[in-house]
Design brief:
The protein is an alpha/beta fold. Helix content is about 40%, strand content about 25%.
Length: about 240
């Protein structure tokens, strides 16, 4: 891939040629620099455009690195913030062996029961794994509920709903009318989760992202662009 050297720093980028009119630069959640460009523009010109945006690109890459470090260093100790449907809750760690209901949302706290015999590394893994399973369970129930609600409004009904681990997309609609949702959206505000539900339901009628598709989305959610922007700015933070 092409390489940019700028102020004693460097980064690679990939070029994707499309039938669009302008050059676009996007930093993916995993820290890749992706440049989309009309097919008729020469790579040397694209290189110059990327070089001019190097300050901005490096600042974004630095931010991603800091976020990743924060996630890796997370200890899941008492008082940590746990996000659910866009709201912050405090983590309450209870050192007690409990088979049932190891994780429970109670008032303004997430109660997590852990075995007092676990060492620090095992303790963190136990809390992380338990929280992930709790999120997945809640996500499935919430997506079923919201899909049922908006299906009645749109009169569009999927065959199946699945909640999955998806690295780079929030939802998808198959040619067989099955809809997949990313469980991590259970951490986002409900309006954002609803936007993805409406987005995928509208794909049951319009399989592309045409003007008609976005018109249908806007008909149901006039402020959908706010949720779309929220995901663009905060989506990478929806991690356990």
């Amino acid at each position: 891939m092409p390489l940019i050297n700028y102020k004693d720093q460097c980064f690679e980028y990939e070029i994707v040629k499309k039938k669009n009119r302008n050059i676009g630069i996007r930093i993916t959640p995993d820290g890749r620099v992706r440049v989309t460009s009309p097919s008729f523009i020469e790579d040397s010109y694209i290189h110059g455009v990327v070089y001019k945006r190097a300050d901005w690109i490096l600042s974004k890459l630095k931010l991603i690195g800091e976020m990743d470090k924060g996630v890796l260093n997370r200890r899941y100790s008492r008082g940590d913030s746990i996000i659910y449907l866009g709201e912050e809750y405090k983590l309450k760690v209870i050192e007690e062996v409990e088979v049932e209901g190891r994780i429970r949302l109670k008032g303004e706290e997430f109660e997590v029961h852990v075995d007092p015999e676990l060492d620090e590394e095992e303790r963190e893994k136990s809390i992380r794994d338990g929280l992930t399973e709790w999120y997945k369970h809640e996500a499935f129930n919430k997506f079923k509920e919201r899909t049922r609600f908006y299906s009645e409004i749109l009169k569009l009904y999927p065959i199946n709903i699945r909640v999955k681990e998806q690295k780079s997309i929030w939802g998808s609609c198959s040619s067989k009318d099955n809809i997949n949702f990313n469980w991590k959206l259970i951490m986002a505000p409900l309006t954002v989760l609803d936007y993805i539900v409406v987005h995928e339901l509208c794909h049951l009628k319009h399989r592309d992202h045409s003007k008609n598709f976005w018109g249908l989305v806007e008909q149901i959610m006039p402020d959908y662009k706010k949720s779309k922007q929220w995901l663009k700015e905060n989506g990478r933070n929806l991690r356990v």
